[in-house]
Amino acid sequence: MPEAPNTAHSGATDALNIAGTPYSSRLLVGTGKYRDFEQTRQAVEASGAQIVTVAVRRTNLGQEAGAPNLLDVLDPARYTILPNTAGCYTAEDALRTCRLARELLDGAGLVKLEVLGDPETLYPDVTATLQAAETLVAEGFQVMVYTNDDPLIARRLQEMGCVAVMPLGAPIGSGLGIRNPYNIRTIVEHATVPILVDAGVGTASDAAIAMELGCDGVLMNTAIAEAEDPVRMALAMRKAVEAGRDAYCAGRMPRRRHASASSPLDGRFF
């Protein structure tokens, strides 16, 4: 009797779990840099994302009465709105931004923490990130944290109580792809919480590589928003994340230094 197919990683069971909530999509998308809110809406829909991140310091979520509100086109009943601290260069600014976001989103405590080190590279200030993360966790926030690709820092953030660790693939907005796959893989291998590549993805193959490394998901913005056709790129990224996850779960063939015939002669009938 043939063996039953392995369904352990089928779409119905292979959910991304963030802070106790399952998500069928492993692609998270940002909302900045689009032509307008309508293009934002179209791209988000094409991506299939269920978690959408929003820069609180740059996007109106209700703090500016009478101004266009992103929540008018991205319904919080349909999407998990993930406020982020983009543009914050100190732990104090990041803390204030997260507290404001919790007020604007009716007490929701899921946040994406990023504390930047300098405006040229947008590289994370790891010391300030650790300080802010510790305070936010103590205040009851569920912290998804952007950091560098240092496995030791990733471990500290997990131990601190962050619900997801998000190492960069390359600098924010660079589109350079996964520059240090070995560190990313090391972080994944020692993970106790979801690991999502955040920053550096430029095209679909980058997203697939991140997933093939074993990451639980990918967050991106610029790669979609600055494409010539953002909506079509969003669809491509959706497919790439799904394909990369399936490839990782399937288990790739071993790499070899020599040929291995796909139709070997051993055991032939003639």
Average per-residue pLDDT, rounded, comes to 91
Rg over alpha carbons: 20 Å
Number of strands: 10
Q: What structural class do helix, strand and pairing data support?
A: alpha/beta
Oligomer: single chain
Beta-strand percentage range: 15-25%
Helix content: 25-40%
| Contiguous runs where pLDDT drops below 50 for at least 5 residues | 1-12
Major sheet size, sense and barrel closure = 5 strands, parallel
Gist of the model:
The chain has eight helices and ten strands. By secondary structure, it is an alpha/beta fold.
Which SSEs are present, and which pair or pack?
Layout: E1 16-18, E2 21-23, E3 27-30, H1 37-47, E4 51-55, E5 80-84, H2 91-104, E6 110-113, H3 126-138, E7 142-147, H4 151-160, E8 164-167, H5 181-189, E9 196-198, H6 204-212, E10 217-220, H7 222-225, H8 230-250
Parallel strand pairs: 3-4, 3-10, 4-5, 6-7, 7-8, 9-10
Antiparallel strand pairs: 1-2
Helix pairs in contact: 1-8, 2-3, 3-4, 4-5, 6-8
